[in-house]
Amino acid sequence: MCSSDLAAPWVPAGGHFHPATVLEGVEPGMAIARDEVFGPVVGLIAAGTLDEAIEIHNGVAYGLSGSIFTRDLATAETFIAAARVGIVHVNGETAGAEPHVPFGGTKGSSSWSREQGHAAAEFYTQTKTVYVDGLPTVGPFDRDPGATGAGRA
Q1: Mean predicted confidence (pLDDT) in 45-72
Q2: Which of 32, 33, 53, 69 has the least CB density, counted as fewest CB within 10 Å?
Q3: Residues 6+ apart with CB under 8 A from 8
Q4: 60-64 contacts, C-beta under 8 A, 24 or more apart
Q5: CB half-sphere exposure, 83, CA atoms < 13 A
Q6: What is the rounded CA–CA span in Å between residue 116 and residue 85?
């Protein structure tokens, strides 16, 4: 385990603060590997091949984002195609998304919708389909100005 011993002076005594931590020797079945951790903690899992790494990566209940660090474009493309996540980063951290592109995950990290960008309109819009049968075909300018009742101008 590697951890920062630097205590932030702005953290009140007795508060909840965890320094940046890297955990080595993590196995896929461990809680640190299976649960979403919202803090400066990362668990390292060794994989012998790209296929094994993808299997480990996809073997969790969550799928907001994933990342691969590589110098090989074919390796990156393989990961992009196989990763069951909403956002893929190549040679970058998994945090952050641009506000003009759709944002959202898969599996347990998702509401199965996307927000931000053009997808935001769909995310915040509820559509309604209406069928009207059996009424006279009257345009908005064909109404009788003296008529009364619901739906009459």
Answers
A1: 90
A2: 69
A3: 17
A4: 60/33, 60/34, 60/107, 61/34, 61/107, 61/108, 62/36, 62/105, 62/107, 62/108, 62/109, 63/105, 63/106, 63/107, 63/108, 63/109, 63/110, 64/36, 64/94, 64/104, 64/105, 64/106, 64/109, 64/110
A5: 23
A6: 17
Q: What are phi and psi for residue 78, nearest 5 degrees?
A: -60, -45
Which residue is associated with the tokens 């506000």?
99
User: CA–CA distance from 9 to each of 3, 17, 73 (Å)?
Assistant: 17, 11, 43
pTM over 0.70: no
pLDDT confidence band for 55 (50 / 70 / 90)? very high
pLDDT digits (tens, 9 = 90+) for 121-134: 676 677 766 666 66
Averaged pLDDT of the chain: 75
- Residue 17 CA to residue 112 CA, distance in Å, equals 32
